[in-house]
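If your schedule permits, I should be very grateful for your opinion on a structural question. I would ask you to consider whether the tokens describe a fold that such a sequence might reasonably adopt. Thank you for your consideration; the sequence and its tokens are set out here.
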Amino acid sequence: MIPLERILPDPNSSFRVLYHHVLSDVFSWDFHYHPEIELVYVFGGIGRRHVGNHVSYYESGDLVLIGSNLPHSGFGYGALDKHEEVVIQFKKELILESLEFQKIQDLFERAVLGVSFFGYTKEILEKHFKKIKEQDAIEKYISLLEILKILSESEEYILLNKTQYEQSNLSKDQHRLFRIFEFVEKNFEKDINTGNLAEISHLTIPAFCNYFKKNIGVSFTDFLNEYRINQACMMITEGNTISDVGFRCGFNSLSYFSRTFKTFKNMSPKDFQNKVFEKKERK
């Protein structure tokens, strides 16, 4: 079963603020849930998000709101180098159910699907998350209200799941999906076909294809390609050559690798490499 995490508020506070700035290898793919709403701001880098049935990757940090009892894993897993984030965990009751806070209550309703924010919203909130970890209890509460106000008014977001996560299916789906994800993690550089996954899922190939699309929202082929391309981004960031990366990520053709990379990243591997080098030079 997916473990329930017990959240204890900070001293003299009704919610918890966590700050992590550690090596990414301290994180594991630990799926868990808790009644508290969780707000995560990752300051930079590439990593993986797993919220409900949604598995995807971020490239330049992340800002995600996770609703009450929505299972998720730590965002530091799969990140490059050091991982820096602020996590805010609070109960829905912290925000009064009054007309003044109606937009924030509506935001919480969307959060049951998981909400990822981007663009200007993420940019302007960076300073709020940087200061909240240093503030006293009252200042933190005021900052949290400011953050939630901005998020509730933003239109720069995507919902990570199409439907609310069904608690009744947690155990069976958890183990099956974990077997699938673990197999992809260990074998993404090899030739993988749906027959491999159907076998470990104890399903026929058509049943596996339908199951995966229903639970993850994309075909297995698209999921595998996205996983490989995000692994490729990490390898390019580490300084590996594009040709070496393509073959190490399971692509037998560099032209197919380039086309697939552009499909998911809206740029060629070479353009991504140049972008990485420009950032490093500015530092």
